[in-house]
Amino acid sequence: MRRLLWRVLELLAILRGVVRAAREPPADERDDDGIDPSCRVTPSSPGAERALAVLLVLAGLGLAAFGVLIAVDADPRLLGAVLGGGLACLAAALIVAGLRIVPQEVAVEERPPLGDERARAAALEQLRGGTEGVSRRRLIVGAAGAAGTGLAAAAVLPITALGPGAHVLDESPWRAGVALVDEDGQPIGADAVPVGSFATAFPAGADRRELGSPVVVVHVDPRTLDLPAERRTWAPEGLLAFSKICTHAGCAVSLFRYPLYEPTSDAPALVCPCHYSTFDVRRAAKVTLGPAGRPLPQLPLRIDARRRLVAGGPLSGSVGPAWWGTQRG
Amino acid sequence: MTRRRALALAVCAAVVCGWPAPSRAQSPQRHVGAGRTSGPALYDDGCVSCHGPDARGVPGRAPSLRGVGAAALDFYLATGRMPLADATIEPPRSQPPVYGAAQRHALIAYLTQLQPGGDPIPAVRPQLGDLARGRRLFADSCSGCHQIVAKGGVDPVIVAPALDEVTPLEIGEAIRVGPYLMPRFDERRLDAHDVDSIARYITEVAQHPPDRGGWGIGNVGPIPEGLVVWLLAGGVLIVVARIIGRRATG
User: Fold this and answer.
1) pLDDT tens digits for B89-118?
2) How many other C-beta atoms can be found within 10 angstroms of the C-beta atom of residue B124?
3) Residues in chain A closer than 8 A to B71 (CB atoms)
């Protein structure tokens, strides 16, 4: 690494020398102090043109080599070297062209003075005359009317949005009886998630890329559950399922912590890795920390006759970031 | 001017080459149980103050060790997390462990015969694992906290440790035990082959990332990589612009 950096520094020093040399005017033009700044200097010389051609050919070779090497999956360092080298040659070619081949000149273009006195006077006259057409009273009444109309227009849509909201955003593939399957489509058994463990599950037969699809199943000691009365039956044997999409910014809630010894540790919780919203799983994913505005929607669970996990109903709320469901919590 | 610029460049180069050089915290010297080899004596010396007589635990202070199984005992002792001077902290891994292998065996034998139960010390054989499966399982169940590169991560209350130096046995024990706030995964959730596969992924790929570009930049993701690129390339661009440009005069 250190060697590489010194190489880069050496290269820069060489480049600097080249540029210095290129910038020196040809010998016959030196010491010409009385030169007119607008005079045209054409520094092109056969040497500069050759250098430009060589650099352009090198750039072409380097870039073409990159195209070939990337196809054969060469070492990334070699790929970087030829691509970077090609682009550096191209840059050097542009520097040489700019300094030694393109004509250098300084030109000053004269322009007429700005503003026409007569036109300005006429415009000012028109402006002064204009103010006399509207009286103060009419102006204020008119402006107030415009403000009132605007206010009414602004209120129309919010007023129509009051009352029961549309439930289209609540839709998810979860219905009563839908089986929970793992990433490979295999049903998840009630015994496959031991106390203190977690698993990600999807609805059987549905598109798992849908926002409402992924849920996280966690298993806690059923004696420690503290669910609201209407959710008492949603967690058979301490198995709980919640939407895996954080209600704050829609990240995947991928952290599950479960204490081995709770008195000196923290309560079981699902945590979103993006902004650390923390959901207490035993209290129906109540937010205990972080920016999430509402709990994760809970999926009621049932254990069927073959001891597989199935949904006992739809999710308890809308899935995803808070602004979707702040009305209904 | 030129000398000053060269000096600045050299300083930048030195900083870049020297980074990242993680300093490893040295574990404080502890002399608990020095010279002892009998299980009960070791227990009375280093464990009883928190875990109580007969290893029944002290409510609110430390859990019972009866029936926890050899995997849990070996994990906490071999990673140097126990014994602990202050019962309220969750210490990081520290090596070498306070107790040597013979002392650990004596302690584990004593505690497991008090009450059998729990997981035995698992046999983890990464060479039998399937690397692709290990990567997938690690992404599913571990990377949420430990990151896919196994560099560890944070939660508001805990630090999920980096897995840079862990051994396959420690991986297997941690999966079965679920130490501290880590979830636990039993045979039904991750079977022995799954554990072998995860251990293979961690020890073969995460601990020895391929770094095909020649420099891993700590293997901690795109943000430091982007920073390095911007700072290095940006610096070079500024220097080149300064060389080929001409200072405006007047």
Assistant:
1) 777 888 788 888 888 888 888 888 888 888
2) 22
3) none
Q: Do B184 and A259 touch (CB under 8 A)?
A: no
Cα–Cα distances (Å) from B134 to A277, B25, B37, B166, in that order, read 29, 30, 38, 16
- Phi/psi zone of residue A63: left (φ > 0), alpha (ψ -120 to 50 degrees), beta? alpha
CA proximity to B71, closest of B184, B193, B194:
B184
CA atoms within 13 A on the CB side of A10: 6
ipTM of the complex model: 0.71
Task: List, for residues A66-75, the tens digit of each pLDDT value.
Answer: 988 888 888 8
Q: Are A192 and A237 in contact (CB under 8 A)?
A: no
Residues 6+ apart with CB under 8 A from A256: A198, A216, A218, A268, A269, A270, A271, B144, B183
Across the interface, whether the CB atoms of A183 and B140 are under 8 A apart is answered yes
Residue located via tokens 């073959």: A306
**Mean of per-residue pLDDT scores for chain B:** 81
Answer for the pair A316, A301: CB distance below 8 angstroms, yes or no.
Answer: no
B189: nearest CA in chain A? A192
Which letter, b or e, does each residue of A287-323 get, where b requires 16 or more Cβ atoms within 10 Å of its Cβ?
bbbbebebbbbbbbbbbeeeebbbbbbbbbbbbbbbe
